[in-house]
Amino acid sequence: MRRPMTPTPRQRLLDWTVRLLVPLLLAGIAVLTFWVASLFDEPPGLSLPVIGVLVAFVFVIAEGVRLLSRRLDRRLPWRDGALRRTLAQLAVTVALSIALALLAYVPLKLQEIRQGAHDELAWPHLLLTAAIALGFALALNALQAVTDFYRGWQQARIEAEQLKEVALRAELDALKAQVNPHFLFNSLNALYGLIDEDPRRARALVLELSDVFRYVLAHGHGDLVPLARELEFLDAYAALLAARHGDGLVIERATGGAEAHLALPPMTLQLLVENAVKHNRVEPGDGLVVRIVRDGDTLEVSNPLKPRRGAATGAGTGLRNIDQRYRLLCLRGVQVRRESDRFIVRVPLLPCSH
After folding, report:
1. Best exposed site among 28, 66, 234, 343 by fewest CB in 10 Å?
2. What is the pTM of this model?
3. Domain coordinates of the chain in residue numbers?
């Protein structure tokens, strides 16, 4: 069974409007109608007891319709059969309305007769009273049906948004889970290349790797990280790359300050630098220069195109991961542009929420 949704302030305001103002309006229309009709009586006018009973009658019927609708929502919801629900609700509320109307009308009429009014309690009066009660019941049921429909539509819309948010969160978590194994594989690959060549540097690389993974553990599962923290992580990652490539890789930065107030998905820069290293030659004397430049609320990461000989075309996992994470977080993807001699990726910078 679907759990009832907690009413929003807007829904509570609508509920109280329906419960107070609408019955009061209907009662006012009824009193005005009876008053106009009573102008032809002798003496003209409505007695205060009759007005009070009429107003109370409308409010009681309105509350009865509302309470019955709530009970039927649990026992016979609209989605299980609109016709059965309509007939059941009308039958009970019309019977209740007519019964209450007669219980209120008959004593008042008898009291007027006892006080000397030249009138009698006849079937036409009872039928007219029942017809008036029927009209009130139909009007209040129609209004309650509209209110129930609006409330159900609101609940369905909010539940759909919640389900969408849960699905997006699950997708985002899955994308973030892809980053860590991918990063671990490439970091261990770099370490493996140094073990035989330079064991001492390999040991230093293990320490650098521990610092890098401390960042991964602290921020890898978050949605966003301050740009300043991401740049610190990039420095540590660059040290890992320098251990393998020496001065063959140069990372130039021009971010213009305010890094603590801007954010991006964690490990974005690492994936972009890794992508540049993976697809281009990184050789001493012919260095690969990766430039990271901030342009307003966008960060541009670019590198010259120096394709590695014999390198297989990559699957684009890193760029696709970054793009999908951005689209889930801010509905904006990354911009990728390939020029004749440069590869450029522009990623949005988002407000930092810390």
Report:
1. 28
2. 0.52
3. 9-164, 196-351
